Amino acid sequence: MSARVFFPRMGVSGVDWPGDTAAMIQTRLVDPATEEEITAPGQPGELRFQGAATFTGYYNLPELTAKAFDAQGYYKTGDLFEIAGDGPSPRYYRFVGRCKDIIVRGGVNISPAELDDLLSSHPALREAAAIGMPDDVLGERVCAVIVPASASAPDLKELTNWLRTQGLAVFKLPERVEVVDALPRNAMNKVVRSDLRAQVLAKIGAA
Fold first, then answer.
1. How many CB atoms within 10 Å of residue 201?
2. Would you identify the CATH topology of the domain 6-99?
3. Would you say 99 and 48 are in contact if contact means Cβ atoms under 8 Å apart?
4. Which DSSP state fits 98?
5. What pTM, to 2 d.p., does this model score?
6. What is the CATH superfamily name and number for domain 102-206?
7. Would you list the domain boundaries of the chain?
8. How far apart, in Å, are the Cα atoms of 2 and each of 5, 39, 96, 153?
9. 20-67 tens-digit pLDDT
C-alpha cells in the first residue's frame, strides 16, 4: 500500500492500532451532503477527527470555528477518503480527493480523482479529468474532459467501454465527453477543476 494514498483508520471501534497516537484520536467518515456516517468500504466521505491532537478553534473567530467542526466536535478536513482493506473491520482509509471536487449524481457521491487516473492512462489520451456537469434530473452528470494524444479523439462509447474493462463501477461512467486543447493547472501542476468546469460550460454555451 502506498503511504501517500492509504492511512491508518485510527480511533474506530473494532479497529486497533498500536502506539499512543492511535489511542488519543478518533476518526470517522461522513457524507458531506447528508451528514450521515459512512461505515462501509468503497463510499467516499469527508474524513473528520477529534482528540488530543485537534485544536479547539480559531482565535476570536467563532463563525469560522463553527464551520470547521461538526455537531459532534469532529474537525472537518475537507478531504475525501473511503474505507479500504480486507476483513470485517478494514484498517485503512484511502485518499480519493477533495470535498469541493466531488460529483453528486442522483444523490451518490463520485470522486473524480479515480476517473482522472483511469482516463489519463488511456493510450489515446495525453491528459484527462472528470468534472460534474449540471443536470435537471440528477443534479450532476459525469463529464470526461480529454486532451487527445493525436488528431483522433476517442468517443464516449469507446471511453466507457474501456473504463469498464478497467473495473470502473457503472454509476461512475462518464455520460459526456468534451475535447479541449489543455487542462488548466496551478503552480503545483494540479488540475484546477473549477476553471475546467467553467471552460467547458463556456464552450457548450458558445456552441
1. 15
2. Luciferase; domain 3 (2.30.38)
3. no
4. E
5. 0.67
6. ANL, C-terminal domain (3.30.300.30)
7. 6-99, 102-206
8. 5, 22, 13, 32
9. 888 889 999 999 888 999 999 988 899 999 988 788 888 888 888 888
